[in-house]
Design a protein that fits this description.
The complex is a heterodimer. Chain A is of the alpha/beta class. Helices cover about 30% and strands about 15% of the residues of chain A. Chain A contains 8 helices and 7 strands, in the order E-H-H-E-H-E-H-E-H-E-E-E-H-H-H. Chain A is globular. The relative contact order of chain A is 0.17. By secondary structure, chain B is of the alpha/beta class. Chain B has a 5-stranded parallel sheet, with helices on one face. In chain B, helix 2 packs across helix 5 and helix 6 runs parallel beside helix 8. Chain B is globular. The chains are: A alpha/beta, B alpha/beta. Chains A and B meet through helix 4, helix 6, helix 7 and helix 8 of A and strand 1, strand 2, helix 2, helix 3 and helix 5 of B.
Chain lengths: ~210, ~475
């Protein structure tokens, strides 16, 4: 996994609450057996005027000029600014893969759905939770200033604005460590293989029906 | 010992080791796998040169992509076929039990787990699917995970998890005749909102819940995720144990007796403390239908479509406005004026035998309205289908003009060809009414099987309680 330490990038504002993972990556693109290539279909229904299907050349498709990511000033954004309950619904990790494949490294929102939040950390995408008032301020500043950029620093757990204002955010220490180091968390868990085996032995004695078959 | 909730008890029992202050390495008893969220996990395992930890804990089925017109012969769509074939290959390679297409036990993963007795009380159950919460109806801790976590569980039988807060939703009293579990759950979501349970595990409790069948309980836990909670669960009682008895994966003989004795303790202690509690009065719950593009945008069937102008919260009012535009609806119009083009009875929420019986009771002796372009029943599993056919329900549906299909997720998410076209409106027994969920530009109204059946024969949304059961 790509580590995340500090990222500075252009901000794109997605001004909708309860954005669901079906909107982030529609179902027809879940048929891939790969982890890559989802970027061109990020927000497909909103981003294009035609109906998207797997295998279409995204350069040949008609973009929706009203959709925020299609506006010239937000092209190349690396930080997505979003509203409450971002990425609710389906557990599809493809939503995270689509965001990172497109080029996002961080999403800032007042709240996230639980499964998406956890999926993000597995893929080097940092979900930053800030209070609604701060997010509102960032929306205003992003919309008012073309080329508005933010710095997200995981080491200091801060979001820093161009004029130097810094907003702290919380991250669980274990997740932070994994992301800073870009750790393989399966290898980490396998260090405790003996603990897992001991647990299994104990449970087999207590509740053997759990180990049938 | 301090009083504990059911969630606390299952959690404590599965901690392999504490991982820092908040995180724990949690053991997984049952891992259910389907074709869409697993291929990258198996591939990751292979690339890292790892083996699955305990394949006997894994149960696989193909459900999201499978066609519902026929299950014989190869799938036409090459991408869907590749995914389903990949699941077969991975299952064969690692010796994982697979209920594939053509097997009568195949079906929607959250229908077949309980049906097979593979879902047992006190288990931790995961699946790369957000509706895994369904299994919580059996007093198990069940939640949806992403593909990286699928790989983690395959490789280690564990997950690093953060304990959620405890929330209890109590529903008390007798439901009015004709009001179902789906109505209860939609009413709960309408009450607490789609983020109401975020960061919490919801225990559903109260006299109303205790009176529900296991099918009804599954419908409720299934949609915990639509209330923001990764897991929903319910205490074990006689209904739970009676349902499991004799199922293929359930323990037998002495082991059964020992298991049942253990399961009886799977309830919250009387004095357990919940971080949050919500109470609903069952008598106040009417049949519910969603009007908007989020499950919280729901109203009783007798209501008018709400007006954003009356919503004081501007963010909410904007969302309502956008939803009405997308849905092609006007505020102030009776819900019963909504006219669907298609009817979908199916999904992991409502495709069990009881659901099909409830829909058939309304359909019996009637025809679908001329304005309905397509009405389909998609049983949750091959065994549900077989049971329904033995009761003659298929004939009831077919005589009314419904299509009787093969099991799968179908139009709940439209990964196969069962989809809405732009602008089409659907009365659906599924769980999500998001924009484009059932097909780009499609418009979804969520409701119970009886209500969807009522809409099919009336041509518009209707209070199904007004439609007498013609069998009597």
């Amino acid at each position: 996994m790509e580590p995340f330490t500090r990222f500075e990038g252009l901000v794109a504002p997605l001004d909708r609450s309860n954005v669901d993972t079906d909107a982030i990556i529609p179902k027809q693109f879940l048929k891939s057996v790969q982890r890559t290539g989802f970027g061109p279909n990020l927000f497909d229904d909103w981003r294009y005027l035609d109906s998207g299907e797997p295998g279409m050349d995204s350069y040949e498709r008609r973009e929706n000029p009203d959709f925020v990511l299609n506006q010239p000033r937000y092209r190349g954004a690396g930080i997505l600014l979003a509203r409450e309950n971002f990425a609710c619904g389906s557990s599809r990790e493809h939503a995270v893969w689509a965001l990172t494949d497109y080029g996002f490294r961080a999403v800032i929102a007042p709240s996230f759905a639980d499964i998406f939040y956890s999926n993000s950390f597995k893929n080097g995408l940092l979900p930053v939770q800030l209070d609604a008032e701060t997010v509102e301020r960032l929306f205003r500043e992003t919309q008012a200033n073309e080329g508005y950029r933010l710095t997200v620093d995981l080491r200091t757990q801060q979001v820093i604005t161009p004029d130097g204002a810094a907003f702290g955010f919380e991250v669980d220490p274990f997740r932070r460590e994994c992301l800073l180091e870009g750790m393989d968390d399966i290898a980490l868990t396998l260090q405790y293989a003996d603990d897992i085996r001991r647990y299994e032995e104990r449970r087999k004695a207590e509740a053997p029906w759990l180990f049938a078959g | 010992m301090t009083a504990r909730t059911l969630y606390d008890k299952i959690w404590d029992q599965h901690v392999v080791r504490q991982q820092g202050e908040d995180a724990a390495l949690l053991y997984v008893d049952r891992h259910m796998v389907h074709e869409v969220t697993s291929p990258q996990a198996f591939e990751g395992l292979r690339l890292a040169g790892r083996q699955p930890w305990r394949t006997s804990s894994v149960l696989a089925t193909a459900d999201h992509n499978v066609p519902t017109t026929t299950h014989s012969g190869p799938i036409e769509d090459p991408l869907s076929r590749t995914q389903v074939d990949t699941l077969s290959r991975n299952s064969n390679e690692y010796g994982i039990q697979l209920f594939g297409m053509g097997d009568a036990r195949q079906g929607i993963v959250h229908v077949i787990g309980p049906e097979q007795g593979a879902t047992l009380p006190g288990m931790t159950i995961v699946c790369g699917d957000s509706h895994t919460a369904t299994h919580g109806a059996f007093g198990s801790l069940a939640f949806g995970i992403g593909t990286s976590e699928v790989e983690h569980v395959l490789a280690t039988q564990c997950l690093v998890q953060y304990k959620a807060k405890n929330m209890r939703v109590r529903v008390e009293g007798d439901l009015r005749p004709g009001v179902t579990a789906k109505d209860v759950m939609l009413a709960i979501i309408g009450h607490i909102g789609t983020a109401g349970g975020t960061g919490h595990t919801i225990e559903f409790a109260g006299s109303t819940i205790r009176q529900l069948s296991m099918e009804g309980r599954m419908t409720i836990c299934n949609m915990a995720i639509e209330a923001g909670a990764r897991a929903g669960l319910m205490g074990v009682d006689d209904h739970t144990i009676d349902y499991i008895a004799g199922r293929p994966f359930a323990p037998t003989g002495q082991l059964w007796e020992k298991a049942v004795a253990d399961w009886r303790g799977l309830v919250s202690d009387d004095d357990a403390v919940f971080d949050r509690e919500v109470v609903l009065d069952a008598a106040e719950i009417e049949p519910q239908v969603t009007w908007g593009t989020s499950p919280e945008m729901v109203a009783p069937i007798g209501a008018l479509i709400p007006d954003p102008a009356n919503e004081p919260d501007t963010v909410k009012a904007q969302a309502m406005q956008r939803a009405l535009e997308y849905q092609g609806l006007e505020p102030g119009v009776p819900m019963t004026d909504i006219r669907p083009d298609k009817i979908f009875i199916g999904s992991c929420t409502n495709a069990r035998i009881e659901d099909l019986r409830a829909a058939a009771r309304v359909v019996q002796g009637r025809r679908i309205a001329d304005s309905i372009k397509l009405a389909m029943v998609v049983p949750g599993s091959g065994l549900v289908k077989r049971q329904a056919e033995s009761e003659g329900l298929d004939e009831v549906f077919k005589a009314a003009g419904f299509e009787w299909r093969e099991p799968g997720c179908s139009m709940c998410l439209g990964m196969n060809t069962d989809r809405l076209s732009p602008g089409e409106r659907c009365a659906s027994t599924s769980n999500r009414n998001f924009e484009g969920r059932q097909g780009q530009g499609g418009r979804t109204h969520l409701m119970s099987p009886a209500m969807a059946a009522g809409a099919a024969v009336s041509g518009h949304l209707v209070d199904a309680r007004t439609m007498a059961d013609r069998r009597h």
